[in-house]
Amino acid sequence: MSGGGPSTEAIAVLLNVDIKEVKDVLSSPSGKNFEYEEPQTTPVSKVLAAWHSDPRYSGPYGVLVDLPFAASGDSADRGGLTFSELSRQCCPDISPKVLLDECIRTGCVVSVGSGFYRAAKRSHIPDPLSALSIGHFAHVVHNVCETCERNLRTESVGGKGLFERAIFTDNRITRTDLKAFDKYVRERGQRFADDIDIWLSSRAQPGPSDVDTVHTGIGIYHYVVNEEDEREFGQAQIFGQAQIKGTKDAH
């Protein structure tokens, strides 16, 4: 903070946009229109991804090293690695201190004492109903619909479409078991997500996109059936089938 207002760096971190875009907006004439594209990753996400995937930040057996904020005598024993260096590597236009504060605020990084910090999470989940969360919702719905639509095409017959699986119970489970299932899915699902992240990160191609590269990923979600919607969906199916039958009988 300076002069009673947030810095451009703080705005970039909190709104999850590039610092150059913030500067362009702040210096632009009032009322100027800007195109907005939802960022694929946030500054915090970039730091966490590098911390987990860059072998320089891993110790024996793949355990992540704790990082000091800046260089000191202790950091020399760890190859000179610091959070500031990691921050500049991932987000050179954002102050490492601003980025560390946001990592701590969101619980992604914790202090372990003596000036060292530890990555507590692999991913960054934005606040509910933030602009990023709403954008994330739109992307998830879009991607799920894209996969389902692609798998309906003729060329996808015989398992040639995109991977799509649903695992569910034929009978109900208790609310207590639902809580246990949620815990089980979070633990096992996170392990699977980490494996996928490592695989994709090892093959990611930096630089501009071209005809030989694609954006791809895996979406994982746990659902609980909305009984009222399910009843209405069932009634709509029956009505639709009756309409089809009636049309065929008329011909």
Explained architecture:
The structure is a single chain. This protein is mainly alpha-helical and 251 residues long. The chain has three domains: 112 residues, no CATH class; 38 residues, no CATH class; 86 residues, no CATH class. It is 49% helix and 4% strand. The chain is built from nine helices and three strands; from the N terminus they run H-H-H-E-H-H-H-E-E-H-H-H. A three-stranded antiparallel beta sheet has the order 1-3-2. Strand 2 and strand 3 form a beta hairpin. Helix 1 packs across helix 2 and helix 5 crosses helix 6. The radius of gyration is 24 Å and the shape is elongated. About 4% of the residues have low confidence.
Write the layout of secondary structure elements.
Blueprint: H1 8-15, H2 19-27, H3 43-53, E1 67-68, H4 73-76, H5 83-90, H6 96-105, E2 109-113, E3 116-119, H7 131-151, H8 175-201, H9 227-250
Helix pairs in contact: 1-2, 5-6
For this entry, give a set of tags.
mainly alpha; 3 domains; three-stranded antiparallel β-sheet; 9 helices; elongated
| Main sheet characteristics | 3 strands, antiparallel
Count of helix runs = 9
Q: What low-confidence regions span 5 or more consecutive residues with pLDDT below 50?
A: 30-40
Report the strand count: 3
Helix content: 40-55%
Judging from the principal axes of the Cα atoms, what is the shape?
elongated
Structural class call reads mainly alpha
- Average per-residue pLDDT, rounded, comes to 77
Distance between the termini: 74 Å
Quick structural summary:
The protein has helices at 8-15, 19-27, 43-53, 73-76, 83-90, 96-105, 131-151, 175-201, 227-250; strands at 67-68, 109-113, 116-119.
